[in-house]
Q: What sequence folds into this?
């Protein structure tokens, strides 16, 4: 028992010497005692061997940290973020001067405009006529109605019964016919008018000569005019429907807006509008100008890479009449920071920096920085040396700081497994300002990218003739932060540009 009684202090000596002996001294002591036990008792020898290795494995070995790394994971891809669409309305103001309407009508209506060369038609009406435009057709507008004054010179030949005999007499006279027309657009973009006669005024009354005496036949001719006014107004409506074409200029604007155009050659970024429907307000009559607003409602998006291939549309969607067309325009501007780029920024800021805790009793120096994503959180892997050695992991949510124009972090804290490891071996690190310092100082500048994109977009919206006859004008009023997306390749900061955009189509 004398020899066996030395077993207890021999086995327990490493515990007693944990802070007094070096690891090499502990191993030499273990080898010396193990040699004694091997000759005395195989059982005691192997028990001592197992217990000594257990005790040594529990040593902190320089307080080496080895927490479990958070799993890398992403909810979205870069392409999905770049293809995010924003519902917007392209504002197409329509301004029609009555002088333009007069000019077009007078250009189309000239010379002889009506002719009846038979005395036998219309149930042998014994009446012939020719009608010429005498002067400029005048157009006014009031109470949502167009009013037309049509100056005419009219020649007629009519059979008249005098003393039982039919005599054919000719006469010429001048008259101003008046019409009023209600103008509407159908859902299929055809123009629909409802024209009514609004009376007439004699400029030179008709007469015929019978036995050398001029006999006024105003009443007779007036009856003939009244009889034919219905067919005249019907003809006017048919001619308007046949000759007034709005589809062509609107389809031109529609296809022009669908065509992607380059915002930034440097970033290979295109602005694309995907129109969905067309709106229009009722016509407004303001003095000598008729106004309406066409709204092309659709999605705006930015794409990066090669120019998207868009085939021209051959038809327009149905027209929707609304009381108001908004002029709001929204598009997402993106700035990109790759993970290697962000890691370099973090390393430049923190690697080599030493942090002290508990009145300098403990200290750690950052030796490396790496970053990646886990869903909505940015994971920071920091290598440490000092009182503790190894890697730790922190997690925080990135956001766009509009004031500083940077991607920053909020609620940065130690990952759960790192927190558990530190709680057992370095609680002082948990209680210090390490995480708060990283949160405050780790910023990723992206303001220059966003400023460049905003400047380029504004340039593209200023009096830009997309094609001949189609001019775009717009204004970016404000930039609002959206969010920061973590994708497998990069952090993407998205800000929304809000403004107004007008498209003028010449001739519309």
A:
């Amino acid at each position: 028992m004398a020899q066996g009684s030395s077993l207890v202090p021999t086995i327990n000596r490493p515990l007693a010497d944990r802070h007094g002996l070096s690891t090499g001294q502990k191993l030499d002591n273990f080898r010396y005692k193990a040699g004694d036990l091997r000759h005395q008792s195989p059982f005691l020898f192997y028990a001592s061997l197992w217990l000594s290795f257990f005790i040594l494995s529990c040593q902190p070995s320089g307080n080496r940290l080895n927490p479990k790394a958070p799993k890398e994971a992403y909810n979205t891809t870069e392409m999905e973020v770049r293809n995010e669409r924003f519902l917007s309305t392209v504002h197409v103001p329509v301004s029609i001067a009555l002088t333009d309407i007069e000019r077009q009508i007078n250009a189309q209506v000239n010379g002889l405009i009506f002719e009846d060369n038979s005395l036998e038609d219309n149930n042998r009406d014994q009446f012939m006529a020719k009608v010429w435009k005498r002067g400029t057709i005048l157009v006014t507008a009031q109470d949502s109605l167009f009013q037309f004054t049509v100056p005419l010179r009219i020649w007629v030949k009519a059979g008249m019964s005098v003393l039982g005999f039919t005599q054919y007499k000719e006469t010429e006279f001048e008259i101003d016919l008046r019409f009023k027309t209600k103008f509407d657009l159908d859902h299929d973009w055809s123009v629909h008018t409802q024209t009514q006669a609004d009376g007439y005024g004699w400029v030179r009354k008709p007469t015929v000569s019978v036995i050398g005496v001029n006999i006024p036949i105003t009443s007779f001719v007036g009856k003939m005019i009244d009889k034919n006014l219905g067919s005249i107004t019907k003809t006017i409506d048919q001619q308007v429907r046949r000759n007034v074409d709005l589809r062509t200029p609107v389809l031109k604007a529609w296809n022009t807006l669908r065509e992607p155009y380059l915002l930034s050659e440097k970033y290979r970024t295109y602005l694309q509008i995907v129109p969905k429907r067309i709106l229009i307000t009722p016509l407004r009559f303001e003095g000598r100008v008729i106004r309406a607003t066409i709204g092309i409602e659709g999605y705006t998006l930015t794409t990066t890479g090669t120019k998207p291939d868009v085939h021209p549309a051959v038809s327009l969607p149905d027209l929707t009449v609304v009381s108001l067309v908004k002029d709001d325009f929204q598009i997402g501007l993106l700035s990109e920071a790759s993970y290697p780029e962000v890691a370099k920024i973090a390393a430049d800021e923190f690697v080599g920096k030493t942090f002290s805790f508990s009145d300098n009793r403990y200290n750690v120096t950052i030796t490396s920085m790496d970053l990646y994503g886990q869903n909505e959180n940015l994971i920071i892997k920091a290598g440490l040396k000092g009182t503790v050695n190894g890697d730790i992991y922190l997690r925080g949510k990135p956001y766009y700081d509009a004031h500083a124009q940077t991607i920053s972090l909020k609620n940065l804290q130690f990952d759960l497994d790192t927190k558990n490891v530190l709680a057992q071996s370095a609680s002082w690190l948990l209680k210090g300002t390490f995480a708060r310092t990283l949160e405050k100082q780790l910023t990723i500048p992206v303001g220059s990218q966003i400023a460049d994109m905003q400047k380029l977009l504004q340039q593209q919206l200023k009096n830009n003739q997309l094609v001949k006859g189609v001019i775009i004008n717009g204004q970016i009023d404000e930039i609002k932060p959206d969010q920061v997306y973590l994708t497998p390749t990069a952090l993407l900061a998205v800000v929304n540009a809000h403004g107004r955009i007008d498209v003028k189509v010449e001739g519309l």
